[in-house]
Design brief:
heterodimer; A: mainly alpha; 2 domains; two-stranded antiparallel ribbon; about 65% helix; globular; disordered C terminus; B: mainly alpha; two-stranded antiparallel sheet; about 70% helix
Chain lengths: ~425, ~325
């Protein structure tokens, strides 16, 4: 990096403008031409960042407001659950944030990944394939379905794609629900195999057994936590490298102006298809991991609310910014699973007087905040789009694009004045 | 083969189709004028059914009203009230969530539309609950014309026949929907405001230059579309006597499919598509595939979009630059 650019980029002002997101050891502007060197650099910061976060998060239980909520095991268990959503969000980010395609049936690929693992390793299917290869198989199967759905539909206008994916997201759980013979219907498939520690058998370390046979077990969430952190770190590295590659630039070009991208020689259909497939495969990964953690899959886990929640995470986190989206997903999941519950507990404890405003009665102590979860998402989506479309942790390029209209307007003003 | 069942199911399909058609009109009008899939539209329909419930509870109607004069007045009040309220809700949604984003990238209003959909669902969930709510069916469910078509032999195949019940509710909903559809056609084709809507749909800027008030026209489109969804909500209440906070999602998706099938942006097409989708749904259930009826409808949606994205009656749509 040349010294001038380093100076420009590291100056304190740019930290202030970019907010917390910059504290991720990144030392290059997003808009800079990116080469191999910076790709490698990004991977390093992802791995270091994830390692630090993973190591520090469990100690949150020692901090005052959190220490009263739960014990450390529940916290770690919650975090490994949150990891699923982080994975889903960084995957959907490729589709929505980078390529600008609205995918409303994202949960379908999640379901496909989960059921793939259920076929690979459960008494129902009489298979017992180890977890680790199944991760890749699940991702691949989900990607294939992404291609199958995307190939005919990605030629359509963007908003038709939204509705087709919405329909697909509805059909997939229906199919899993109705095909009793193959999926055990509403009851789902139970007693899935647990992941095993690589290179470990009951006798200890064993180089000849790459997938291991020592099972993770159910009581201890720590192995699941570490596994999901590793999956996230690897996925994020790959996604960063993709984003900074020729394909990533093509995605952004298609997002910003499809016609212009096509005239620059980008094959827009293949580009979009690839984004779709990569998003789907990440969702498939998350599905395999979640089903192995819960040891059960059932159609009701993969409804429209899942797709919607992930979308809210991506939009809130900042479309196009991988770390931002990951942080958004984590924060929203924790608010949803812990925060709202704690709000209930808090307001039941403080005994505020009930408000009577005409016919509206508000008694905070009796409100179940969990009921308002989707109302909050809805308000957040509308509010974000109106006030801060680039999300809480924006990618710089995305922000520039979303404020395009204002800038163009300002430019016109200047021309008029001149 | 039973000709009675076929006639009965045709009646059922026409009734359901009438509701889908009314909802689909809102989708198609909004898409026609601002090229936005209004995801919240199905929920406007759902809120319409709850407004009906609220109105009937407030008036104190318990069940069927048998005095014809009272019934007619009550129906007029119900439709007028719910349609106006839902129309205003539609205008409000457009004003708050869509108008500020009219020049934003296309993704932005789609995302707010989903947000609005969830806000509407949750407001109902918070004011009522997630339970099923019974709505008094003001038209007597026993009022019906029953007949048995004759059995006959067709080229050696015995065609039996069972009793057909044409209930007053079915007939009323079908007639009302057709009247609204025709009324809308006349409004769009024959009036000044209708012409403003058509010209705005074709070229917003040119229309503006010709003196059309764009904001009012788009607001009017939302008013009419949402009012029709409100009418569908009343029709739903009359027909099923039951509502729930999430009926808007399925009905909305099916109606959208209807709008696409008929050719999005085309009001006649939307009405036609609504009836077609209802026929497909009702007859696939009759043939024993009721669990698959949704999957069938969405597969049709995908197939139509892939092979004939302009729908049955639609014109070629250019990609907006």
């Amino acid at each position: 990096m040349n010294p001038l650019r380093a100076l420009l980029f590291w100056r304190p002002g740019s930290y202030l403008r970019q907010g917390v997101a910059t504290l991720r050891l990144r030392s290059r502007p997003v808009t800079a031409p990116t080469g191999r060197f910076f790709g490698a650099h990004q991977s390093l910061s992802v791995i270091v960042g994830m390692a630090i976060v993973t190591a520090l998060l469990p100690f949150i239980v020692l901090l005052p407001p959190f220490s009263g909520f739960n014990n450390q095991t529940s916290f770690v268990d919650g975090f490994s659950q949150a990891g699923v959503w982080v994975l889903l969000a960084v995957g959907l980010n490729v589709v929505v944030g980078l390529a600008g395609l609205l995918d409303l049936g994202y949960a379908a690929f999640f379901a496909i990944g989960a059921y793939t693992y259920a076929y690979g390793s459960s008494p129902f299917s009489h298979n017992a394939i180890p977890f680790w290869p199944m991760l890749l198989v699940g991702a691949a199967v989900a990607a294939i379905f992404g291609l199958l759905l995307g190939a005919p539909t990605l030629r359509l206008r963007g908003d038709y794609l939204a509705i087709v994916t919405l329909g697909f997201g509805e059909i997939v759980p229906v199919v899993f629900n109705n095909s009793d013979t193959y999926t055990n219907g509403t009851n789902g498939i139970t007693a899935l195999g647990q992941p095993t520690v690589p290179f470990y058998t009951a006798q200890g370390f064993d180089l000849t057994s790459p997938f291991g046979s020592l099972s993770f077990g159910f009581g201890n969430p720590v192995p699941y936590y570490i596994t999901v952190a590793a999956i996230i770190a690897i996925t994020m590295c790959l996604l960063y490298r993709l984003q900074d590659s020729r394909i990533g630039r093509a995605w952004m070009a298609v997002r910003e102006d499809e016609l212009a991208a096509a005239s620059m020689g980008i094959n827009t259909v293949t580009t979009k298809l690839l984004a779709f497939a990569i998003g789907a495969s990440t969702s498939g990964l998350a599905g395999v991991y979640l089903s192995s953690k819960l040891a059960i899959v059932s159609p009701s886990q993969f409804g429209f609310t899942v797709s919607f929640t992930v979308l809210a995470m991506v939009v809130l986190g900042g479309m196009g910014n991988i770390w931002g989206v990951a942080a958004g997903a984590f924060v929203i999941y924790e608010i949803q699973s812990q925060g709202l519950k704690q709000l209930n507990v808090f307001f039941q404890g403080v005994n505020l007087p009930a408000l009577h405003l005409g016919f509206v009665n508000i008694d905070l102590a009796t409100i179940n905040f969990l009921d308002y979860q989707y109302l909050l998402y809805g308000l957040a989506l509308v509010g974000m789009m109106l006030l801060r479309p680039e999300g809480l942790f924006p990618s710089r390029r995305r922000r520039a694009e979303l404020h395009d209209v204002d800038d163009a307007g300002a430019a016109n003003q200047e021309i008029v004045q001149a | 083969m039973d000709v009675g069942i076929v006639i009965q199911q045709t009646l059922n399909a026409l009734t359901i189709g009438a509701m889908y058609a009314l909802i689909a009109l809102g989708y198609t009008m909004v898409y026609g004028i601002i090229e936005l899939i209004n995801f919240a539209h199905g929920d406007v329909f759902m809120v319409g059914s709850f407004v009906t419930l609220w109105l009937l509870t407030t008036i104190g109607v318990q069940g069927a009203v048998n005095d014809p004069v009272q019934l007619v007045i009550l129906l007029i009040v119900m439709f007028a009230f719910v349609m106006i309220v839902m129309g205003l809700v539609g205008v409000l949604i457009e004003r708050v969530a869509y108008r500020p984003l009219r020049n934003a990238p296309r993704l932005a209003p789609l995302i707010t539309a989903i947000g609005v959909s969830f806000i509407l669902q949750n407001l109902i969930q918070a004011t009522y609950s997630t339970a099923n709510f019974n709505i008094p069916q003001v038209i007597n469910t026993d009022a019906r014309v029953s007949f048995t078509p004759p059995s006959f032999n067709l080229a050696g195949v015995a065609v039996t026949s069972s009793k057909v019940d044409a209930t007053a509710i079915h007939i009323f909903i079908i007639v009302l929907a057709l009247a609204l559809i025709v009324g809308l056609q006349l409004f769009v084709r024959r009036t000044r405001l209708g012409r403003a809507m058509r010209s705005t749909a074709i070229d917003r800027e040119a229309a503006q230059l010709m003196g059309v008030d764009i904001n009012t026209t788009i607001a009017l489109t939302f008013f009419i579309g949402s009012a029709l969804a409100g009418a569908a909500g009343v029709a739903w209440s009359l027909n099923y006597g039951l509502t729930k906070f999430d009926i808007g999602f399925q009905a909305g998706l099916k109606s959208f499919t209807a709008a696409v099938l008929g050719g999005i942006g085309n009001t006649t097409g939307a009405a036609l598509g609504g009836f077609l989708i209802a026929f497909i749904e009702v007859f696939s259930s009759q043939l024993g595939y009721s669990r698959w009826s949704e999957a069938i409808v969405f597969s049709i949606l995908v197939l139509v979009l892939v092979f004939r994205p302009t729908g049955i009656l639609g014109q070629q749509l250019a990609e907006r630059a």
